[in-house]
Amino acid sequence: MSAKKKNLDVYLGEVFKQFIALKENDLRKSQEVFKSVFELFKQKMGEQCNYFKKYASQVMYAGSVYDGIKVSKLDEFDMDIVIRLPVNYVDVGENGIIIENDEPGFVKLKIIKAFDNLDKQKEWDTCHKVTRDWRDTDKYLLQNKFRQWLHKIVQRTVNDLNDKVTVLGVTYLLSYKTTGPAYTLNIRNSEGDEEFLLDVDLVPVIRFMLPRWPEGYRTVENTQIKEWLVVPKPNKSVQDEGLKNRLWRLSFQDYERDMIKGCQGLKTTIRLVKKLRDELGMKAIASYYIKTLFLWKVEATDKQYWQRKISVIYREMVEDLYNAITEKNIPYFWNKDNNLIQGVKPTVLQVYANKLKEVLVSIDSNDVEKTVYFLLNTEEKEEFKNSEFYKNQAVGDTGNNIVRQASVCNVTDDTQSLKLVEKKEKDNELLNLVRKLMTKIDRLTLKMEEQEMRLIRLENERLVNNTDCVHAKDTITEVKPLSVDLTKGSVNDISQDSQEAVVSDLLIL
Hints:
Largest sheet: 10 strands, mixed
Distance between the termini: 60 Å
Radius of gyration: 48 Å
Strand content: 15-25%
Oligomer: single chain
Low-confidence stretches: 1-6, 401-419, 469-509
C-alpha cells in the first residue's frame, strides 16, 4: 500500500505542477494588468453615475483566484463591487431592511420607508433617482433591476473609452458580455508577441454585518469575520419570474475562506478534483459544489487530516463526490435543506457517477498512469508522455527491474561464493595435512640417513680394529634402532605404533 501511494503521489505532484498550478509569471502579470486597468475603469464608471461614485467605494476579490483554488491558468478574476444602500442596516423594521427567508440559500430583501423617503432628499435628482426602479410594488428589492443598473454603467464606460484603455504605454482592448449575475469585462492586448487575455466578472453585492444574520443558517464560532453578502444571482429552480427576481443568493465567502485556512493539502486536492471534473465533462457540477464537499470534510475532520498524503485525500474526496452524485444530493453547507444539484437531471448524474467509478477503480487497482490520465486532455497526455519526468520514471522503472535482477544474481553469486569458500577451507585443511605428513617424512628420512651414516662409520671402525673383534661385536650389539619424535623434533626409538601412524596418514592422503 505504501509503495502504491508514494508512486501515485509522485505522479499527481508532477501533473499538478505541469497542468494545474498557476504559473508565477502569469499570476504576477495578470494581477498587474488587472489592477492598473480596473482602477482606471472604475474611475470612469464613477463618472457615468453619481450613485455608483458615492456608494461603490469598496471592491472585493472573490472566487477561486482569491481562495487559492484556481486551476491551470489565471484568465479570469471575480470582483465583488459592494454597493451600499442609503438605509439603516441595523434597523430590522420598516425604517431599515427586512430580511425574509424563502428558498434555502436565498433571501428576500424588503425596504419600505427608507426608500420611500429618498425622493424627498436633495440628492434625489443627482444621485438617488436610480433606485426608484429597484423595488416592485410590494417593496421587495429586485436583483434583476440591480444587475441591470450596473450593466448600463459598464456598457457606457466601455463606450466612453472607445473599447480600449492604455496603461503604462500598453493598449488593451475592452469588450463585455452578460454571464448570469455577473457582467464580464474582457481585456486583451492589442499588440505584442505574447497574447494576453483576461476576463473580469463584475458582480454588485450588498454587504451585511453582524449581529444581523439570516435566520436558519449556521453560524461559525471562533472567527473574526463579521461580514456576509447577498448576491443578485437568480434561483434557477424557481419558475415564477416575479419570485425569482426577489430572491438574492446568500454568500459567506469570507467565512469559507477562513475555514480552509491552515488545511495544508486542501487547496491542492480541491484543484485536482476540479481538474478531474473538467476533463470528465461534468459541466453541471459547479466549482462551488466541489468546494462545498470540502467544507463538509473540514467540519468533520481536524487540521491533521489535511497533512496526509495528497493521494489519500484525493481518493477520499473523489469518493465523496461519487457518493454525493449517486445520492443526487450535495447539501448546501450553510443550510443543508438546500440541495445544490437538485436541478440536475438524474440521467446526467448517473453518467457522472459511472465516470467517477472508473477513476476510483483505477486508484484502487494501482493503475497510476490511468489515474493521472483521467486528469489530462489529449494534448496534455502527449505533453506529459514527452516530459522529462515521464522519461525519467520509465528509466527508473527499468533501473528497478535491473536492481531486482541484480539482487537475484547476487543471491546466486553469494551461494556460489559460499560453496567456493567451503571448498577452499577443505583444500586448506588437506594441504595442511599434506604439509604435516611431508614434514614427518622429511624428518624420518633425515634420521634414517643419520642412522645409516652411523652404521657405516661403525662398520669402518670394525674393519680398522680387526684385532679387537670381540669389542667391535659388542659395540654393534649395543647399537639400537633409532626413532624420530616428529612432534618434538628429537631422536627416539621408532616404535611400531609410530610407523603405523605415518603409514595411516599417507593412506588417508
